Amino acid sequence: MTQPAVPDGVARLDAEFKEWLGHEQLRIREQQGQGDVGQGFSLERGEAERMLEQARQLRIKVKDAENDARTLAQIQPPAGDPASISYHGDLTRRADGQPAAFSFGAGHLLVQHAYLSELIDRLETALGKTHESDENAGADIARAGNKAGGDLG
């Protein structure tokens, strides 16, 4: 199944989200009631952990909805009559080849997924989860190489 192109308006929206996120830093306050820790956003650790879990769950739902919208964008008209073809075009692809409702919906969900992925990455980084898992992965690879007698260095 081919994937519909992301409409230009959706691509611009994605660029705006990335621009907005690009200038802000996210910091974790270790103690409740601790003041701001500089420029950007600051969250207490518990708030950040809850936000991270909610963002992960929402990203899964958004991805599922995006897949559904892409599937809908591929439907064919039930009949070859002009009314069915015209209505179908309003939903999937217009007569001039431009994307229509379902393609725009899939594009917007794609942008939301990218936004949530960026937010999750930043929360994980701020919480130290990404760096911790990277270090664990490196140690696991080194152990696997030593057990197999390989030289990874």
Description:
The protein contains 5 helices and 2 strands, in the order H-E-E-H-H-H-H. The chain has a domain at 44-148. The protein has helices at 8-22, 45-72, 82-91, 101-127, 129-148; strands spanning 26-29, 41-44. Strands 1-2 form a two-stranded parallel sheet. Helix 1 packs parallel to helix 4 and helix 2 (45-72) runs antiparallel to helix 4 (101-127). By secondary structure, it is mainly α. It is elongated and about 65 Å long.
List keywords for this structure.
153 residues, elongated, 2 strands, mainly alpha
Widest beta sheet: strand line-up: 1-2
Mean pLDDT across all residues, rounded? Answer: 76
Low-confidence stretches: none
Could you give the count of β-strands?
Answer: 2
Could you tell me the strand content as a percent range? 5-15%
Secondary structure: elements and pairs:
Layout: H1 8-22, E1 26-29, E2 41-44, H2 45-72, H3 82-91, H4 101-127, H5 129-148
Parallel strand pairs: 1-2
Helix pairs in contact: 1-4, 2-4
Put the structure in a nutshell:
The chain is mainly alpha-helical and 153 residues long. The chain has a domain at 44-148.
